[in-house]
Structure formats: C-alpha cells, structure tokens
Amino acid sequence: MRIELQPRLNPPRWLGFAAPVAAVAVALLIGGVIVANLGKSPLDAFLVYFVDPLTQDWSLEALAVKASPLVLIATGLCFCFRANLWNIGAEGQFVAGGACGGALALATHGADHAGPLGGSWILPAMLLLGILGGAAYALIPAVLRVALGVNEILSSLMLVYVAGLGLDYLVRGPWRDPAGFNFPVSVNFDPDATLPTLIDGASLHAGVLVTLLVVVGAALVFSRTMFGYEIRCVGAAPRAARFAGFDEKRLTLLVFALSGGLAGLAGVMEVSGQIGQLQPSISPGYGFTAIIVAYLGRLQPMGVLVAGLVLALTYVGGEGAQIALKLPLDVTKAFQGILLVCVLGADVVTRYRVRIVGRVMA
Amino acid sequence: MASLPGSPSVRTPAPLVAIRGLSKSFGPVHANRNIDLDVLAGENHALLGENGAGKSTLVKMLYGLLQPSAGEILWQGRPVVLGSPEAARALGIGMVFQHFSLFENLTVSENIALVLPPERQSRLDARIGGLSERYGLKLEPARPVWSLSAGERQRIEIARVLLQDPKLMILDEPTSVLTPQESESLFAILDRLKAEGRALLYISHRLDDVRRLCDRATVLRAGRVVGTCDPRAETARSMAAQMVGAQIAEVSSRGGAVGAERFAADDLSLPAPGLHATALRGIHLSVRGGEVLGIAGVAGNGQDELFAALSGERLASDAGAIRIDGRPAGRDGITARRRRGAAFVPEERNGHAAVPGFALSDNLVLSRHATGEVSRGGFLRGAAARAIAREVVETFDVRAGAPDPAARTLSGGNLQKFVVGREILREPGVLVINQPTWGVDALAGAAIHQAILDLAGRGSAVVVISQDLDELFRLCDRLCVIHDGTLSPATATAETDRDDVGLRMAGTVPSPPAGTEVASAPVHAH
Amino acid sequence: MNPDMIQLVLVGVVTAATPLFLAALGELVAERAGVLNLGVEGMMVMGAASGFAAAYLTGSTLIGALVGTAVGALMALLFGLLTVVFAVSQVAAGLALTIFGLGLSGLVGSAFVGLKRDAAPHLAIPGLTHLPVVGRLVFGEDYFVYAALLLALAVSHGLRRTRAGLVLRAVGDNHGSAHALGVPVRSVRLLAVLFGGACAGLGGAYLSLSYTPFWSPEMTAGRGWIALALVVFASWRPWRALGGALLFGGATVLQLQAQAFGIGLPGQFMSAVPYLVTLLALVALSLRRRAGSVAPAMLGTAFVPDR
C-alpha cells in the first residue's frame, strides 16, 4: 500500500475554511479520548472548556483579554511565517516588551507629575517602549541571520530562555518591591501607567481595541500594499523576489522588527492592562501558543482573530476545568499541541488530493 | 519462446521489448494513450515528439518509475511487470536521465555504487577503470560530482548503466548539454554498444543526431503514436512536421538597421556567489539597437551568474561595468535598470520568472511594479494589473484555462509566452533573455523567436543566452561563447559555424586574437 | 583543585554531555537524510516523562530506557507521517511536536512529580574503576554513556562505510535523483526520523533516570534545541558532535560549579550560560564558514514524487 499526493492546482476556496474547522473537530475528538482516559466525562469537559466560558459576562471578558495577546503576537508571526522566516522567539520578545514598558512604569512610580501633561504621557510612552523593546529583541536573530547567516530558528529560541531569566533576575533583584514582604514582584503600577478598562469595574482593557486595529491594518497590508506583496513573494519564491528587485535582507529585518514589536506591544499591554505589576513570569506561553493561532488562522490576520479566540477559550476553559473537574492544566497544553498537529494535517488535504494506492498487481 | 541471449540462430526472434496498448493517465490528463512500440535487439530506436507529447512518461514506465494505467510490456516475448527501477535493471534495462540523476556531494564511485549490487570498493574502482579502456570513458572514481563538467557528469551516468551490462539502454536527451564535439564522442560509444548487440531507445529533439544514429523512429503526439519512420529516409524538417502535426512558420528576420550601442558590459568581473558557482572574469560585450547578440555555452559555465550580473540581481563592483544607453548602470539594481528601459527573462520559469502559486496578474506585478501602472504610493493596483495581464495573454496567445489562473496551471510553452510577453509588451530598449525556449513546444518556440526578432526590428538591443546552437544561429547577428566565466569576443554569425562555436564552448580556443588569455583545460576553478 | 576533584568535574561534564549527544546523534542521522526535525525537544521531554514513569512502575532502569526510546520513536512516527508522507512543512510540524510533547509529558508525568528513585547503575570493574584520577572517568560511568559511545561508533561507521549509509546520504543530497534510481526516498527518511526520535527519547530518559533521577515538568529545559544547534555546530559529523556535546556539558558544569563556589554573578546569569554559549557557537560557526554550507543539500525540503 502506498500513499500518493496529487497537488491540487486550483484548491477550492471552501476548503480553506473547512480545513481548520475539521482540524478543531478532530482535535476535540482526540482531546475527548484523553479526558476519558483521565476518568472524566468528555461531554462535561467539553461543556466546561468550550461552552461555559461563552455564557457569562466575566468569562467573555476574560476571553477577549486572553485572546488579545495571542492575536497580536500571531498577527506579527503571520508577517514572518508568510515570508518563510521563522521567528519562534515571540515569547522572549513578549517578555522584553513587557520589561521595557514596565521599567518606565517603575521609574515613574509615585513621582509627582508637574507640567501641562501631568502623567498622561506615561502610558503611551510605555506602549512605545514595549514595541521598541520587542522589536529590538527580535532584531538580534534577524541581524545575525542577515549579516552572518545564523539560523534564526535556533537563535530566536535561545533568546527566549535568556529573556525569561533576565526578567526573573530583575524582578527578584533590583525591581523587587521593598515593601512587598520579600515576594518576588514589583510595586503595583500607578493609574497613569495602567491601561484603562473599557467598562467600569471590568477586566476588559483598552488593549483589546488596539489589537483589533492592528488586525485590520495587517489585513490591509497583506492584500493591498506592495509590502504585503513583497512578503508573499519572498515566502513563495525567493528567487522570483530577487528577480522582482525586492531586498530580502531589508525585508527580513522589517518583518522581524514588526513581529517583535507586536509581541512587545502584547507584553507591555499584558503587564499594564492585565497584571498591573511585573512578576518573574508574565506569560503562560502566549508566544508559543501564538504559533498555533497563526497556523489555525491560515497565516491571515482575519483568520488569526478567530483562531485567537478559539485558543483563548482553551485557556479560560482550562482554568474552569481545573476547578470544576480537577483536570490538570497540562490537558490544555496537550490539547493545544494536538490542535496544531491536526491543523497541519488538515492543510495537507487543502494542498493535495490524497490517494491510497494498492500495491501493483503481481 | 524466450530466446537465450547470445543465440542468434533462433528464427524470427521476439522483439527485445514490446509495448502493447500502454496507457497512463494522471487524473484527468492522459499522458499516454494506447501506445504500441517494439524495440528489437541491437536496434537503435528513436522516440520523437514535442515537449509534453508523452515521451518521458513512456520511458518512465519502461524503467519502472511509473505504473501503467492499462496495457502491457513484453520483455523478450514474456509479459513483465516493472514495479520498480530495480526490477527494470534486473531485466537488463538501463536509463540515462536528461537532467542527470547524480548526487553532487558524493564521489563518482559512490554515485555508481548506488545502483549496483554491493561490492568491494577496490573491485568497483577497477571495473570503472575497465570502462575507460573498453569505451574510452575516462572517470576519476574519487572525485566529488560537484567538481565535474556536464560532459564528465554524463560519463558517470553512462558508466553507471554500462556496469549493469544492459540489453536495452534508454537515453533521454543525452546531447542537450554537450558540445558538438562531446556529442560526437558520445556517438562513438553508442556505436560500439550497438556493435555489441545492445538496443537503444533514444530520445532527442536534435533530429540530425537521430538521423546519424537511429535505424527506426516512433513519433508521439499528444500521448499517441502518430507514425513510425526510417530517420535516414527522412529530413529533419519532415520529421519535425510529423512531431508537431503542422507546418511551423519559418521565423523571418527583420533586417532593421543597426543603430547606436544600447547595452554593454565592460570588464565585468564578479566572484563566485557560492561554493559550486562560477566566477565571472573580465566580461566584455556590446549590443547595438536592432541587433541580437547570442551567448553560447555548455550549462554551468557561468550563464546564470552572467544573467544575474546583466540584470542587476547582483550588482557589479563598479558602476561602469554595465552601461545602458551609454550611461553607467553597474551599481543599479534590477528595478533601477528596468526603469531605464531594460527587461529580463531568466531561464527558470517556475520560481524565478514567475511564482507558480500566484495568479498571472500577480505575476505581472513581479517585473512591472517599478515601471508599469500596477502600483502607486506603496499600494497595489489590482485592476490595472489584471488589465495588463489580460493584454499580455491576448497579444501573445497565451492559452489558459481560466480568466486569471495560477501560473502553475499553464503548460511550459504558455507560461514562457507569458513571461516573455510580459517584458516585450513594455517595449524595452534592452532585453536580456536566458534560454528563451528551453522545454517549450515548437509552436510556442517559434512564436517567441518571432517576438524577439520583431523587438530587435523595432530598434531594441537583445542578448540571448542559450545552449541551443540551432536557436542561436537562427536568431543572432553576432555570437560569443561563455566558458568557465569568461566570454569570447563576438563574431558575426555568418562568419562562424557550429564546429567553431563548439570548440570554443569546450574551452579550446581556435586561434584567439593576440593578447587574449587562453583557457587551456575545461576544468572548473573551485 | 586536586586530581580527584578534577575527575569529579570531568565525570560531571560527561554526564551533562550525554543527553545532548544522544539527541544530537539521532538528529544528525535524520538531517543527513534531509529531514529537519524541530520536534527533538518534545520527543526528549516525552522520553523523560515516560521513561521515568515506566522505570518507577517496574523498578527497572532498563525498561525505563527502552520505554523512553520507544515513546521518542512513536512521536517521531507522527512527525514522519506529517512531514515525510504528507509533505507538511518540517519547521511547522517540528514546532507542533515540541508543543505537543511539552503538554503531553506534563500529563503523563503529573502522577510522578516529586517521586525519586535510585540513579542508573554505573559500570564497576574491580581494579579498574577505582584507579586514581581516571578510574571513574573511564571505567565507572553509567551504562548510558557507554551505550551512547557504541551508538556513535555504529552511526559513524554506518554513514561512511555501509550501503545503508550511502543510500541515506544520497537521499539527503538529492531526493529527486534518488527517486529516479528507485531508492525508496520516503521509507529511508521515515526510518532516519524514527532513529532520530528514538535517540531523542533515550536522551530524555537519561535525564530522568540518571542525570537527575526524578521527573519534573519541562525538565529538558531547551536541551532538544541545543542538540539541534549541536548538529549544525558539528557540521553533520558524529564525532564532532561528541566534541560539541562535551563543550556544552562543560558549560553546564561550569555554571553549576560557579554557583556552588558563590561567584558574584546572579544565578540567573549563570543559568543563561548554556543558551548564550549555544548562540555564540552558532555565531562563531557562521563567521568561520561564510563561503558555503556543508548542510545536506535537501535539508528541510519535502519530497513529493512526481505522481
């Protein structure tokens, strides 16, 4: 028996939508089997994971707040992955952005803000610093690749560990709140350094709006601009891109800076909107989960928006399942991994007609 | 009624191989339909047909690489199933591939060992040495393949087949990358094989070679056998007409007046861009308006590097090394050169001249974004791109199945007409085109040739880089030869011939002008 | 430092190097066949979790090692199906396997967190193991170390001197040519990937059975990625990978020693040393080899036979 792949010359459009949906369905089935093996009812788990979070105001807000960094990072990753550049260090760029923006919050903590602006400049400056910090951190692997040909996959990943250890050091060391009973956390940010909430008393912060704007902008860049065309071209056929006169090195630096900047923005919005202080760890693996989001969204900003909500659901639902069903958080992580495997598998069906052929007679 | 090898006393022997009603379809595409073909022992049998006629599919089935959808293959009278190349080799079928099936980073003897039953290294090396005595096939077993020239590479392919002691040898376009002289020494080997009683199935588009070599020819068109003939009783023209099924219009030269110099390279030198690439050394060329300059050469002698340097994909170190309309352009990138009226068509359609997955309108943007009306202020103008793409399709008779299809859905000839048309429709003052009709069917090839001559007739300067000497002699006013990164001075086409060009392609310069450096051995400097 | 202390440090270096070397050796074989497996980290961590679980339940280190190896190969089978059979992007599939492995290993190992068992047995040859200065280093390592060396010998010999090695290198150099000659490209790649996964699983099992004889979530801490870097660093040659692994093992031990001796740098900085060393090694390598790459020509490209 042999498996033959026949490339589809004109893949039908509906497959592009059906494939991710099918992938989610298959992943749910496999997840159900795992849950059953842990001695829980798959149906209960399904309700807790994927239905309950959609039924209450607070959990819907939590969903948006969790989806925001995922979507933001994944949108940035679309730029890289579409160009066939593999920035898998978004987790580190997220941390770098959070630390850079957070540094300003700590530096201005408790200060009197004289002058006409008062403290209103702090938050925008923090966001800017977050973007710059993430972009600068992403530029390290990009520059190494462009100048020396260093593999960006390995270098960007190594820097994730370095960033995590760096933040850990800062928060346990120089940035620790002296009045914090030796807990390894910073002081709470001032209101001037905190993202406003959209609804009074709710957790939904303004960062969610920023994310939506970024997604719409990115979708326009891909479909309408020469820059988007350049990225698609470099990713699909680098030699043709050179023939078109596009500068691959310049583009590499740009998309890395862009995706790092978006990851950094997500990081600073997380610390100033969601956490409100700096901690040794500020991300439950958003930078890696965003890779799944990017693929589930078929590397398109609008798709990423939907995919981000799906993955956020597993986070929010996972917390619920931990309490309601005593299911370990690892179930969520394993499910996310299975989902990515299924998404890639489903992609095969969109690109090829898969045929199983019996051995030739004789 | 199988006949033992070496028993010529059997009367009316079965053909060595008989193909009966063989068909092969890929989904809706019928590559081969109901093919009948016999090859007798000791016969040199030609398989003729256009690109896409189904020759490769047929020989792949004979070599066990593809399985027929219907029909059967008889080997010495007995039906056989060729489930794998190994099975084919076990019967005595060997194949020399058009694009070589070699491994750059393995040695010559490792490349050969792969298809033979395991044996000691020293014994294999001795057997490779034996081929040199018997057939004049000189090979150095320990050399890595990447360091070898096209001719040497082909010797490995042939040695690999000969060491299997084949009864039937399939050769797919064996001379397409050889100089005329190298072809001649290949034919000498093939003559000896015939004398040893081996059969040959020979695919070539060089009909003169077929007439020199083959006893019988089978012609394929659109997947079917359309006729058999004795090549010696035919002319190249009559066979070509059978292959195409129509008369191909003779391309007509325009005889336009030759004007001022429009494009030139002046002492252009560039280091090799990679490990296995060629450095360009002291290239001089000059093309005037209304003129077509041809650059001949064996593949891998720096054609791609030269194209990259002329087009601006790679910049020269000195602005004066390239001139467009008399002004220096060596430090201008490809976009800037396009803005100054130059246009370029690279050899490889898929992935270089066009992005296979992009629609034709998106592919139009590839080379027109800087010069056309398809982008403004950083934004794409999709409607404009689609309109121009439609114009290219209509003007150059590009046959496509849909209004704006993906490039990969087009046949080789149609896609080539599109990428050539995309440039010519702009009326460029300079056109540099690399292998204009490589892998293109004859009708499309003739159309492209006519378009090139017409462009020159309107006063543009054209540089044609090609391995196909027939093409160069048909199109060009002057010819030069690239060998190991150096370019010979140009000679008027009327004052040279194939033999002279062939010698220069091999690096042996027949009486160069005084003061020119002589490249003595055809060895790559790595 | 006296000679015995030096020996102790060197034994530590070997121990730290072994899991990296095992994983790198397997990945090297996969890459020589043209497959870039970024799932090494996931396969390693699954090997660690399942290896510890099996060893704890059966009380046998050997069974633990075998289970870890088998689970690594099983993960590789999934990776191979995706990339070799279905031609999915190797980078994407590798990342998927790593994320999947990190999640699933947490689930598999959750019942075993905090449990301890004895470390893997060490070789003991009367008269030799207790030799001063070199005894423990040469004759007193745990069995994994010797197994790893034997494996390296087999891989090095196999790649250079056997038909199987020739076929593997051919597939990694040009899968189109190999296919045209009738080499079963996809089967060869699948086997190479399985071998790579098995080695990664064994390397992971070494971590939880010998290096630190307990399981903790995500205990591989990027070693799978470092192993990938090692393959590049070693220019795809088995013995160079051994040298590289010892170098990285040295960096790890240096970090532990420095912390023990209370060198004034913060602990987080010392913990970052292996990752920074990896980064520096990649940079240094690129500086040395600008002209061209010795990577297998087909590395990372999917093979789809032309119908």
UniProtKB/TrEMBL annotation, chain A:
Species: Lichenibacterium minor
InterPro entries registered for this protein in UniProt: ABC_transp_permease
Recorded superkingdom: Bacteria
Transmembrane segments: 12-38, 58-81, 88-109, 121-140, 152-171, 202-222, 251-269, 281-297, 304-325, 331-349
Source taxonomy: Bacteria, Pseudomonadati, Pseudomonadota, Alphaproteobacteria, Hyphomicrobiales
Pfam family, one: BPD_transp_2
Compartments it resides in: Cell membrane
Name the UniProt record assigns to this protein: ABC transporter permease
Keyword set, alphabetical order: Cell membrane, Membrane, Transmembrane, Transmembrane helix
TrEMBL record, chain B:
SUPFAM superfamilies given in the database record: P-loop containing nucleoside triphosphate hydrolases
Protein name: ABC transporter ATP-binding protein
Stretches assigned to the ABC transporter domain: 17-247, 263-509
Species of origin: Lichenibacterium minor
Top-level division of the source organism's lineage: Bacteria
Keywords: ATP-binding, Nucleotide-binding
Keyword Lipoprotein set for record: no
Listed GO MF terms: ATP binding; ATP hydrolysis activity
UniProt similarity note: Belongs to the ABC transporter superfamily.
SMART domains: AAA (SM00382)
Pfam hit, one: ABC_tran
Region span, Disordered: 506-526
Automatic annotation (TrEMBL), chain C:
Gene Ontology cellular-component terms listed: plasma membrane
Sequence intervals crossing the membrane: 6-26, 38-57, 63-88, 95-115, 143-159, 190-209, 221-239, 246-263, 269-287
Signal peptide, first to last residue: none
Keyword terms, alphabetized: Cell membrane, Membrane, Transmembrane, Transmembrane helix
Pfam families named in the record: BPD_transp_2
Keyword flag Lipid biosynthesis: no
Coiled-coil regions, chain positions: none
Subcellular location: Cell membrane
Molecular function per GO: transmembrane transporter activity
Keyword Transmembrane helix: yes
Bilayer topology: Multi-pass membrane protein
Name this polypeptide is given: ABC transporter permease
